[in-house]
């Protein structure tokens, strides 16, 4: 299999698994798993209980098997050892989906869309849609009704005026679910259409690879052959001029050819920073629709839908309590269900209002502690009375350059994020710019009391905003 033992294999699997699921699910469901052995084409893991095994098998077994295949290079049967409370011999179970092993391609490389150069026949194009994200399980309410109706209209008739369709809203509100549902409906109604869903980040990575390989023309030609292009999180294009320029030409070609473009973003186009004006103008040329945070009734419907879909049984008063007190995103609501189920199984407790209250309070405290680059930039702009758009722009005016340096200094100090990402998000630069900016700020603070007072005052504003 490999030169690694079962512990070494599992240690190589965990970072891959962690990259593919939310952090709270990773901590809850993979922390208690213990690798036992790897032999005779099978990998055995120990889990705490039968209920724990059922959730792992239902939700994560395919991801685990795919990851094992990626690490070992071989088709591996997943087995479980379920610990018994009386310390007797563990019960052994095999994965119910072991037959899927035969479906793995010989060149499997993980959950990543292929490079355009890898797809030789457009008719055989994999749309890379998540089959679990459809209109059938997209819960509609007042906060997302316009987006849902527009999406269905586009799916049934792409020759509508909703081109491009630009859907924006905060993280975890269902944007990705909705655009996947639109893509799935289009493929259902028009199987011959060439549909592709791709994240803006992966689009940028593919463009960078094409530039290095001198295959940019092939890259552009591939995207121009599509009938429907779905781009998720277009704010990722900010400050990447080369990517924006290429996307601009692809966008224009598809639009003029009557092809459908669907995009998601975390904010309205007018609020995007680091984007060329001609790109923003194109974004605004179709329908712009916002997904808002769900109200109480929609939160309740979302919770009930997920509980029913997962075959769970929650008391009605617990559902009402979560819907009333958790005013966050759809993703957070689903996270509460997962956390409640996990704590109930691991701690052998009933699912009741006390348990729900504990989880909601804990998550609320964590949310208050969260600090983002955008929050730092907004605080600095407020303090110095600066325009955020100009701060993100790469002008050399002293007041903006210094504000960017302070932003990078505070981001490095307070946010756990690679320096390259900090530099890219704030100034469109690499890690060396962040290092230089941090030194510059530290040097100024050492000799300029007024400057040091400004930086400390901004930090105090950030602490207060975090609660």
Summed up, what is this model?
By secondary structure, the chain is α/β, with parallel strands linked by helices. It has helices spanning 6-18, 23-30, 50-72, 145-156, 175-189, 200-212, 216-224, 241-256, 277-283, 296-309, 316-325, 330-347, 353-369, 373-384, 388-392, 398-414, 419-427, 431-447, 449-465; strands spanning 34-39, 42-47, 77-82, 91-94, 165-168, 195-199, 228-232, 260-265, 287-290.
Q: What is the topological layout?
A:
Elements: H1 6-18, H2 23-30, E1 34-39, E2 42-47, H3 50-72, E3 77-82, E4 91-94, H4 145-156, E5 165-168, H5 175-189, E6 195-199, H6 200-212, H7 216-224, E7 228-232, H8 241-256, E8 260-265, H9 277-283, E9 287-290, H10 296-309, H11 316-325, H12 330-347, H13 353-369, H14 373-384, H15 388-392, H16 398-414, H17 419-427, H18 431-447, H19 449-465
Parallel strand pairs: 2-3, 5-8, 5-9, 6-7, 7-8
Antiparallel strand pairs: 1-2, 3-4
Helix pairs in contact: 1-3, 2-12, 4-5, 10-11, 10-12, 11-13, 12-13, 14-16, 14-19, 16-17, 16-18, 17-18, 18-19
